[in-house]
Protein backbone atom coordinates (compact mmCIF):
# COMPACT_ATOMS: atom_id res chain seq x y z
CA UNK A 1 0.00 0.00 0.00
CA UNK A 2 2.88 2.35 0.88
CA UNK A 3 4.39 1.70 -2.59
CA UNK A 4 1.03 2.51 -4.22
CA UNK A 5 0.96 5.88 -2.44
CA UNK A 6 4.52 6.62 -3.58
CA UNK A 7 3.53 5.61 -7.15
CA UNK A 8 0.54 7.95 -7.03
CA UNK A 9 2.77 10.77 -5.75
CA UNK A 10 5.39 10.14 -8.46
CA UNK A 11 2.68 10.11 -11.14
CA UNK A 12 1.08 13.29 -9.73
CA UNK A 13 4.39 15.17 -10.00
CA UNK A 14 5.15 13.60 -13.40
CA UNK A 15 8.23 11.79 -12.13
CA UNK A 16 6.83 8.60 -13.68
CA UNK A 17 4.09 8.00 -16.26
CA UNK A 18 0.55 7.25 -15.12
CA UNK A 19 -0.11 3.50 -14.86
CA UNK A 20 -3.69 2.31 -14.67
CA UNK A 21 -4.06 -1.41 -15.40
CA UNK A 22 -7.61 -2.57 -16.01
CA UNK A 23 -9.15 -5.27 -13.80
CA UNK A 24 -10.92 -7.98 -15.79
CA UNK A 25 -12.91 -10.88 -14.34
CA UNK A 26 -13.93 -12.73 -17.49
CA UNK A 27 -13.73 -13.04 -21.27
CA UNK A 28 -16.80 -10.79 -21.48
CA UNK A 29 -14.86 -8.06 -19.65
CA UNK A 30 -11.88 -8.48 -21.99
CA UNK A 31 -13.97 -8.38 -25.16
CA UNK A 32 -16.40 -5.66 -24.01
CA UNK A 33 -17.52 -3.50 -26.97
CA UNK A 34 -16.03 -0.35 -25.43
CA UNK A 35 -12.58 -2.03 -25.46
CA UNK A 36 -12.59 -3.14 -29.11
CA UNK A 37 -11.33 0.19 -30.52
CA UNK A 38 -8.58 0.33 -27.90
CA UNK A 39 -7.46 -3.25 -28.69
CA UNK A 40 -7.32 -2.35 -32.38
CA UNK A 41 -5.22 0.72 -31.57
CA UNK A 42 -2.77 -1.46 -29.64
CA UNK A 43 -2.36 -3.79 -32.64
CA UNK A 44 -1.74 -0.84 -34.95
CA UNK A 45 0.70 0.73 -32.49
CA UNK A 46 3.00 -2.33 -32.30
CA UNK A 47 2.66 -3.04 -36.00
CA UNK A 48 3.91 0.50 -36.76
CA UNK A 49 6.86 0.05 -34.38
CA UNK A 50 8.04 -3.14 -36.09
CA UNK A 51 10.74 -2.63 -38.75
CA UNK A 52 10.41 -4.65 -41.94
CA UNK A 53 14.13 -5.55 -41.98
CA UNK A 54 13.88 -7.51 -38.69
CA UNK A 55 16.94 -5.74 -37.28
CA UNK A 56 17.21 -4.92 -33.55
CA UNK A 57 15.65 -1.58 -32.59
CA UNK A 58 14.72 0.40 -29.49
CA UNK A 59 11.51 1.85 -28.07
CA UNK A 60 11.47 4.68 -25.51
CA UNK A 61 9.87 3.71 -22.22
CA UNK A 62 9.96 4.26 -18.47
CA UNK A 63 11.64 1.42 -16.53
CA UNK A 64 9.81 1.21 -13.22
CA UNK A 65 12.45 -0.94 -11.43
CA UNK A 66 15.16 1.61 -12.43
CA UNK A 67 12.78 4.59 -12.12
CA UNK A 68 14.07 6.28 -15.25
CA UNK A 69 13.31 6.80 -18.92
CA UNK A 70 15.34 4.41 -21.10
CA UNK A 71 15.66 3.07 -24.67
CA UNK A 72 14.11 -0.41 -24.36
CA UNK A 73 15.85 -2.94 -26.59
CA UNK A 74 13.91 -5.18 -28.97
CA UNK A 75 15.15 -7.92 -31.27
CA UNK A 76 13.48 -10.83 -33.06
CA UNK A 77 14.44 -13.63 -30.65
CA UNK A 78 11.34 -15.82 -30.03
CA UNK A 79 9.48 -13.79 -32.72
CA UNK A 80 6.23 -15.19 -34.15
CA UNK A 81 4.04 -14.29 -37.13
CA UNK A 82 0.96 -12.10 -36.65
CA UNK A 83 -1.27 -11.68 -39.73
CA UNK A 84 1.53 -13.14 -41.86
CA UNK A 85 4.20 -10.72 -40.58
CA UNK A 86 6.93 -11.53 -38.04
CA UNK A 87 6.35 -9.64 -34.76
CA UNK A 88 8.85 -9.37 -31.91
CA UNK A 89 7.95 -11.35 -28.81
CA UNK A 90 7.08 -8.10 -26.99
CA UNK A 91 6.45 -9.87 -23.71
CA UNK A 92 9.95 -11.41 -23.54
CA UNK A 93 11.87 -8.53 -25.15
CA UNK A 94 11.81 -4.73 -24.53
CA UNK A 95 14.87 -5.14 -22.30
CA UNK A 96 15.94 -2.23 -20.12
CA UNK A 97 19.63 -1.51 -20.90
CA UNK A 98 20.35 -0.98 -17.16
CA UNK A 99 18.55 -3.74 -15.22
CA UNK A 100 18.29 -6.09 -18.26
CA UNK A 101 14.73 -7.01 -17.23
CA UNK A 102 12.23 -7.66 -20.04
CA UNK A 103 8.72 -6.30 -20.45
CA UNK A 104 6.98 -9.19 -18.65
CA UNK A 105 9.28 -9.03 -15.63
CA UNK A 106 9.32 -5.23 -15.34
CA UNK A 107 5.52 -5.27 -15.44
CA UNK A 108 5.33 -8.12 -12.93
CA UNK A 109 7.45 -6.22 -10.40
CA UNK A 110 5.46 -3.04 -11.03
CA UNK A 111 2.11 -4.81 -10.51
CA UNK A 112 3.33 -6.79 -7.51
CA UNK A 113 4.43 -3.64 -5.70
CA UNK A 114 1.30 -1.72 -6.75
CA UNK A 115 -1.42 -4.31 -6.13
CA UNK A 116 -0.12 -6.93 -3.68
CA UNK A 117 1.42 -4.50 -1.24
CA UNK A 118 3.73 -7.08 0.34
CA UNK A 119 5.80 -5.89 3.26
CA UNK A 120 9.55 -6.29 3.23
CA UNK A 121 9.61 -9.09 5.83
CA UNK A 122 6.62 -11.07 4.51
CA UNK A 123 7.15 -14.75 3.71
CA UNK A 124 6.99 -14.96 -0.08
CA UNK A 125 7.50 -17.91 -2.41
CA UNK A 126 8.59 -17.52 -6.04
CA UNK A 127 8.52 -20.64 -8.24
CA UNK A 128 11.88 -19.81 -9.82
CA UNK A 129 15.39 -19.31 -8.46
CA UNK A 130 17.98 -19.28 -11.24
CA UNK A 131 16.55 -16.11 -12.84
CA UNK A 132 17.02 -12.34 -12.86
CA UNK A 133 13.55 -11.90 -11.34
CA UNK A 134 14.50 -14.05 -8.32
CA UNK A 135 17.75 -12.10 -7.80
CA UNK A 136 15.96 -8.75 -8.07
CA UNK A 137 13.26 -9.76 -5.57
CA UNK A 138 15.66 -11.53 -3.15
CA UNK A 139 17.56 -8.23 -2.76
CA UNK A 140 14.38 -6.49 -1.61
CA UNK A 141 12.47 -9.22 0.24
CA UNK A 142 14.80 -11.07 2.66
CA UNK A 143 12.21 -13.77 3.43
CA UNK A 144 11.69 -14.73 -0.21
CA UNK A 145 12.07 -18.44 -1.04
CA UNK A 146 12.79 -19.44 -4.63
CA UNK A 147 12.88 -22.91 -6.13
CA UNK A 148 13.27 -24.83 -9.37
CA UNK A 149 11.83 -28.19 -10.44
CA UNK A 150 14.97 -30.35 -10.31
CA UNK A 151 13.40 -33.77 -11.02
CA UNK A 152 11.31 -36.49 -9.44
CA UNK A 153 14.37 -37.94 -7.66
CA UNK A 154 14.43 -34.87 -5.36
CA UNK A 155 12.29 -34.40 -2.25
CA UNK A 156 10.20 -31.18 -1.92
CA UNK A 157 12.33 -28.61 -0.08
CA UNK A 158 15.61 -30.45 -0.81
CA UNK A 159 18.54 -28.19 -1.79
CA UNK A 160 21.13 -29.44 -4.28
CA UNK A 161 24.89 -28.81 -4.40
CA UNK A 162 24.36 -25.61 -6.39
CA UNK A 163 22.12 -24.19 -3.66
CA UNK A 164 18.95 -24.62 -5.68
CA UNK A 165 15.85 -25.74 -3.82
CA UNK A 166 13.55 -28.32 -5.37
CA UNK A 167 9.79 -27.88 -5.18
CA UNK A 168 6.96 -29.63 -7.01
CA UNK A 169 3.94 -27.32 -7.24
CA UNK A 170 1.57 -30.26 -6.73
CA UNK A 171 3.17 -31.20 -3.36
CA UNK A 172 4.92 -28.21 -1.80
CA UNK A 173 7.05 -28.54 1.34
CA UNK A 174 5.59 -25.41 2.96
CA UNK A 175 3.34 -25.59 6.03
CA UNK A 176 -0.39 -24.86 5.79
CA UNK A 177 -1.26 -21.12 5.82
CA UNK A 178 2.39 -20.07 6.02
CA UNK A 179 2.92 -17.74 3.03
CA UNK A 180 1.75 -14.18 2.36
CA UNK A 181 2.11 -14.51 -1.41
CA UNK A 182 3.02 -17.13 -4.00
CA UNK A 183 4.37 -15.88 -7.32
CA UNK A 184 4.49 -18.19 -10.32
CA UNK A 185 5.30 -16.97 -13.79
CA UNK A 186 4.79 -19.18 -16.84
CA UNK A 187 4.96 -22.40 -14.81
CA UNK A 188 1.37 -23.73 -14.51
CA UNK A 189 1.28 -24.65 -18.23
CA UNK A 190 4.02 -27.22 -17.56
CA UNK A 191 2.08 -28.96 -14.77
CA UNK A 192 -0.28 -31.63 -16.22
CA UNK A 193 -2.43 -31.58 -13.05
CA UNK A 194 -2.55 -27.78 -12.68
CA UNK A 195 -5.69 -27.83 -10.47
CA UNK A 196 -3.63 -29.85 -7.94
CA UNK A 197 -0.98 -27.10 -8.09
CA UNK A 198 -3.61 -24.41 -7.48
CA UNK A 199 -4.98 -26.41 -4.51
CA UNK A 200 -1.47 -26.63 -3.04
CA UNK A 201 -1.05 -22.86 -3.38
CA UNK A 202 -4.38 -22.37 -1.60
CA UNK A 203 -3.23 -24.68 1.22
CA UNK A 204 0.09 -22.88 1.74
CA UNK A 205 -1.26 -19.31 1.60
CA UNK A 206 -2.26 -17.51 4.77
CA UNK A 207 -5.90 -16.38 4.90
CA UNK A 208 -5.95 -13.25 2.72
CA UNK A 209 -2.71 -14.31 0.97
CA UNK A 210 -2.35 -13.77 -2.77
CA UNK A 211 -1.46 -16.10 -5.63
CA UNK A 212 0.09 -14.02 -8.44
CA UNK A 213 0.75 -15.76 -11.74
CA UNK A 214 1.07 -15.53 -15.49
CA UNK A 215 0.53 -18.25 -18.10
CA UNK A 216 0.38 -18.54 -21.89
CA UNK A 217 -3.13 -17.25 -22.46
CA UNK A 218 -5.39 -17.09 -25.50
CA UNK A 219 -7.10 -13.80 -24.79
CA UNK A 220 -10.02 -14.53 -27.14
CA UNK A 221 -10.68 -18.08 -25.85
CA UNK A 222 -13.02 -19.18 -23.09
CA UNK A 223 -11.76 -22.77 -23.13
CA UNK A 224 -8.21 -23.86 -22.42
CA UNK A 225 -6.34 -25.41 -25.33
CA UNK A 226 -4.97 -28.77 -24.19
CA UNK A 227 -1.76 -29.29 -26.18
CA UNK A 228 -0.67 -32.51 -24.45
CA UNK A 229 -1.90 -34.78 -21.68
CA UNK A 230 -0.67 -37.62 -19.51
CA UNK A 231 -2.28 -41.00 -20.11
CA UNK A 232 -3.11 -43.38 -17.25
CA UNK A 233 0.08 -45.27 -18.17
CA UNK A 234 2.12 -42.08 -17.60
CA UNK A 235 2.83 -41.67 -21.31
CA UNK A 236 2.50 -38.20 -22.87
CA UNK A 237 -0.10 -37.89 -25.61
CA UNK A 238 0.44 -34.92 -27.93
CA UNK A 239 -2.81 -33.36 -29.21
CA UNK A 240 -0.89 -30.55 -30.96
CA UNK A 241 2.73 -30.27 -32.11
CA UNK A 242 4.92 -30.36 -28.97
CA UNK A 243 5.90 -26.91 -27.71
CA UNK A 244 8.90 -26.60 -25.39
CA UNK A 245 9.72 -23.53 -23.30
CA UNK A 246 13.06 -22.47 -21.84
CA UNK A 247 14.01 -24.10 -18.54
CA UNK A 248 16.36 -22.17 -16.18
CA UNK A 249 18.06 -25.40 -15.02
CA UNK A 250 18.19 -27.52 -18.18
CA UNK A 251 18.81 -27.17 -21.89
CA UNK A 252 16.18 -29.78 -22.69
CA UNK A 253 13.25 -27.35 -22.31
CA UNK A 254 9.90 -27.93 -20.65
CA UNK A 255 6.85 -29.35 -22.45
CA UNK A 256 3.90 -26.94 -22.54
CA UNK A 257 0.62 -28.79 -21.80
CA UNK A 258 -1.77 -25.84 -21.97
CA UNK A 259 -2.53 -22.49 -23.54
CA UNK A 260 -5.11 -21.30 -21.05
CA UNK A 261 -8.44 -19.62 -21.71
CA UNK A 262 -10.73 -17.62 -19.41
CA UNK A 263 -12.25 -20.79 -17.91
CA UNK A 264 -9.10 -20.94 -15.76
CA UNK A 265 -10.45 -18.04 -13.66
CA UNK A 266 -13.71 -19.93 -12.99
CA UNK A 267 -11.77 -23.07 -12.08
CA UNK A 268 -9.78 -21.10 -9.48
CA UNK A 269 -13.05 -19.70 -8.05
CA UNK A 270 -14.44 -23.24 -7.85
CA UNK A 271 -11.33 -24.32 -5.92
CA UNK A 272 -11.98 -21.63 -3.30
CA UNK A 273 -10.01 -18.58 -4.45
CA UNK A 274 -11.74 -15.19 -4.33
CA UNK A 275 -11.07 -11.88 -6.13
CA UNK A 276 -9.77 -13.83 -9.15
CA UNK A 277 -8.70 -11.07 -11.53
CA UNK A 278 -6.75 -10.52 -14.73
CA UNK A 279 -4.84 -7.23 -14.65
CA UNK A 280 -4.44 -5.91 -18.19
CA UNK A 281 -1.20 -3.93 -17.85
CA UNK A 282 -0.59 -2.79 -21.46
CA UNK A 283 1.23 0.56 -21.35
CA UNK A 284 3.03 2.36 -24.18
CA UNK A 285 4.68 4.71 -21.67
CA UNK A 286 6.29 1.80 -19.78
CA UNK A 287 6.97 -0.42 -22.79
CA UNK A 288 4.48 -3.13 -21.77
CA UNK A 289 3.31 -4.13 -25.25
CA UNK A 290 1.99 -7.13 -27.19
CA UNK A 291 -1.12 -9.25 -27.31
CA UNK A 292 -0.93 -10.95 -23.88
CA UNK A 293 -0.38 -8.32 -21.21
CA UNK A 294 -2.32 -10.08 -18.47
CA UNK A 295 -1.16 -10.86 -14.96
CA UNK A 296 -3.51 -12.83 -12.74
CA UNK A 297 -4.17 -12.50 -9.04
CA UNK A 298 -6.31 -14.72 -6.82
CA UNK A 299 -6.77 -14.40 -3.08
CA UNK A 300 -7.32 -16.97 -0.37
CA UNK A 301 -10.43 -15.96 1.61
CA UNK A 302 -9.47 -13.87 4.63
CA UNK A 303 -11.70 -16.02 6.83
CA UNK A 304 -11.09 -19.70 6.22
CA UNK A 305 -14.34 -21.23 4.95
CA UNK A 306 -13.33 -24.54 6.56
CA UNK A 307 -13.03 -23.08 10.05
CA UNK A 308 -16.22 -21.07 9.43
CA UNK A 309 -18.08 -24.31 8.66
CA UNK A 310 -16.66 -25.95 11.79
CA UNK A 311 -17.85 -23.04 13.94
CA UNK A 312 -21.28 -23.05 12.26
CA UNK A 313 -21.78 -26.74 13.01
CA UNK A 314 -21.00 -26.48 16.73
ZN1 LIG B 1 15.65 -0.97 -15.74
From TrEMBL:
Domain Methyltransferase type residue range list: 163-213
GO biological process: methylation
Originating organism: Allochromatium humboldtianum
A Pfam family it matches: Methyltransf_11
GO MF, any single term: S-adenosylmethionine-dependent methyltransferase activity
CDD domains: AdoMet_MTases
Signal peptide: none
Keywords: Methyltransferase, Transferase
UniProt-recorded name of the protein: Class I SAM-dependent methyltransferase
InterPro entries documented for this protein: Methyltransf_11 (IPR013216), SAM-dependent_MTases_sf (IPR029063)
Domain of life: Bacteria
Amino acid sequence: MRIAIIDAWRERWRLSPVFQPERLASRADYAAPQRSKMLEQRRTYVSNLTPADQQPFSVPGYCQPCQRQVALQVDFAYAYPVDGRLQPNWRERLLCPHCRLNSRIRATLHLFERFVGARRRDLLYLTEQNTSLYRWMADRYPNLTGSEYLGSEFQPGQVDARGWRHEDLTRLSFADASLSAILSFDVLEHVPDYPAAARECLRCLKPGGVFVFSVPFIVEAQETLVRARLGSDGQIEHLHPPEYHGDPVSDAGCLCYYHFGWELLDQLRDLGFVDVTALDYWSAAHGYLGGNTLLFTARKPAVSMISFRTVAQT
